[in-house]
Design goal:
Porin; single chain; alpha+beta; twelve-stranded antiparallel sheet
Amino acid sequence: MTEEQPERWSLDRLLALFDLEEVIPDVFKAPNPTRGPWTRVFGGQVAAQSVRAALNTVPEDRPIHSLHAYFLRPGKPGEPIFMHVERPRDGKSFTSRRVKAVQGREVIFDMISSFHRVEDGPEYNVPIALDVPSPDEAPEPEGMFGRMRSMMPFDMRELGPTEPVNGVYRSTRRAWFRTAGKLPDDPKLHSCILSFASDMGVVSAARVPVAGENEWERFMGASLDHAVWFHRPIRADEWTLFDLRTISSSGARGLAAGTMHSRDGTLGVSVAQEALIRPMAPPPPTS
């Protein structure tokens, strides 16, 4: 393997990210590999590890139902990340936790999350799109998503955006994904891995209306803030459709929102993220 080649992550390595060490009460040291698919720490990694840290302090009967977070600084691979958990509320039905991910002396990620005691209630969910090919019919990803697939322990089937109608996209990225291997029957672990996946390709989805599918290099992209709602338990090791659409592009920022449905149509997760979409200066003309 040359110096320029990123290291492929195994499923075991992905799972090892959630083996946090409590160094003092409510402060957890998170594994942070030296090399990986990205030159900086993937935002989904920090988000998922923050969820794991919060879950470590919450009663077993309270699954996560939402998180809202800001990516404040890029993380550095290989350097320790410490998750500082605060406990704003422990109520009869809801528990809230704030997690600050600290690297060195800087906060790189700040998250507030909420956990809800399981209750019965009426049911409704937005249905899965009827015109989406099944994972068996969908192609293997190519280009940027193909490179991501080659480096990460996920099976992926990239469907691309829908055709715009009068310049409006119904979806700007659609992809089936699942972990490349069976996972333990631990709902908390599945929530962590879905949190990890919730940051995969959202910036790209936000860029499509202004950059198209093949001109991403003209725009600098970075996640700014992130929100995830967990509606129902779904398994990260079974095919899940991540369907994203761009809500707005303005002021060098793009807002994308999306859903994660299981193959049987169960809506498990909703996601929203605003991303930096800054046009790059064109190269100087050659003489």
